[in-house]
Design goal:
Strand content: under 5%
Structural class: mainly alpha
Number of helices: 13
Order of helices and strands: HHHHHHHHHHHHH
Largest sheet: none
Shape: globular
CATH topology: Growth Hormone, Chain: A
CATH class: Mainly Alpha
CATH superfamily: MFS general substrate transporter like domains
Radius of gyration: 20 Å
């Protein structure tokens, strides 16, 4: 329960951070900026992998040592965030709303008004399916590597550290590709890559062969978060952007991150699971979740590559209170 509540606040802060990036940078640099900022998301995974390889879990407080280390950046963020300023786009929107006496910015359910509901559902469901696959892979791969592939804990941690660096590159490449080719085609290619390398990853038992598949799976799987961050912010006007992004994360992505690993645990249990193998269950889940995510992006999401957010705000004037 504590982890669930913590993830709600972490996801909300992530949504705000992405919103700030989208509002601060011009249209021709938004994709690149999102790629760089979202790549920082892999640093935690890299750090955990390195610390596991160094044996932090062997200290007197066991696995709790990882949480103790994790408190350090939280303290730093709590102090440094006081110096952050509001984005000019948000400041102008807030001033205009006060001048017109509007009250819609107070409702958490504002993103669900009829004019915005379709985008929230489409982006949210895309988040759900994508993250169900990514979270399951991140959660169950160490277990699969150690119990079904016979790898040691230290080698598993080292592989995660190496793959995490590759994942960081995946974010940056996604940012560049978003600017050159667009959000939708880049996302579909990344999802296809995640499936192409993720499915065989959980069928391989040779450590030497597994590393490149792990790196490429994380490159495409985690790197796609740079694109979903664009979808969850660029579709919505400034006055509701951060709330819409928070809904997409908290109401869809986090449940996907819970349901996906849970389903794998039930299906892949070695004693009672219908499939009886974590590797086979993961391969099935990748196909069952990544295909719908790609279909939603292709069928229901429009391209936002050259979208002028100021023009989007002007359109929102027609239906706001």
């Amino acid at each position: 329960m504590a982890q669930f509540v913590a993830q709600i606040f972490v996801a909300s802060e992530w949504a705000v951070a992405v919103t700030i990036v989208v509002e601060e940078f011009p249209v021709h640099r938004r994709g690149r900026s999102l790629g760089i900022v979202t790549s920082m998301n892999t640093l935690g995974g890299i750090t955990v992998g390195v610390l596991a390889f160094l044996g932090l879990q062997n200290t007197p407080i066991s696995w709790r040592a990882f949480f103790l280390v994790g408190i350090i950046p939280l303290i730093a963020v709590a102090l440094w965030r006081r110096k952050m300023r509001e984005t000019p786009m948000y400041a102008e929107e807030r001033a205009a709303s006060k001048a017109k006496g509007r009250h819609d910015e107070a409702s958490i359910f504002e993103p669900w008004r009829p004019q915005l509901r379709r985008n929230v559902l489409a982006v949210g469901l895309m988040h759900f399916f994508r993250y169900a696959a990514v979270a399951s892979g991140a959660f169950w791969w160490p277990y699969y590597a150690q119990t079904e592939a016979g790898m040691s804990l230290s080698l598993t941690g080292l592989y995660l550290g190496i793959a995490g660096l590759t994942g960081a590159v995946g974010f940056i490449v996604a940012g560049r590709a978003m600017e050159r080719f667009g959000r939708r085609p880049t996302f579909i290619v990344y999802i296809a890559g995640a499936a192409l390398f993720g499915v065989p990853l959980f069928q391989i038992h040779s450590p030497g062969v597994m590393l490149p598949f792990l790196c490429l799976s994380i490159f495409f799987g985690l790197g796609s978060a740079a694109i979903t961050s664009a979808f969850s912010t660029e579709f919505f006007p400034t006055y509701v952007r951060s709330r819409a992004a928070a809904w997409c994360r908290n109401a869809f992505e986090i449940p996907g991150g819970i349901v996906g690993p849970l389903v794998i645990g039930v299906l892949g249990d070695h004693q009672t699971g219908p499939i009886g193998s974590i590797g086979d269950a993961m391969s099935v889940l990748f196909i069952a979740t990544l295909l719908p995510a790609a279909f939603i992006a292709w069928r229901y999401l429009s391209e936002t590559r050259h979208l002028d957010l100021s023009a989007l705000d002007m359109l929102a004037e027609e239906y706001r209170v």
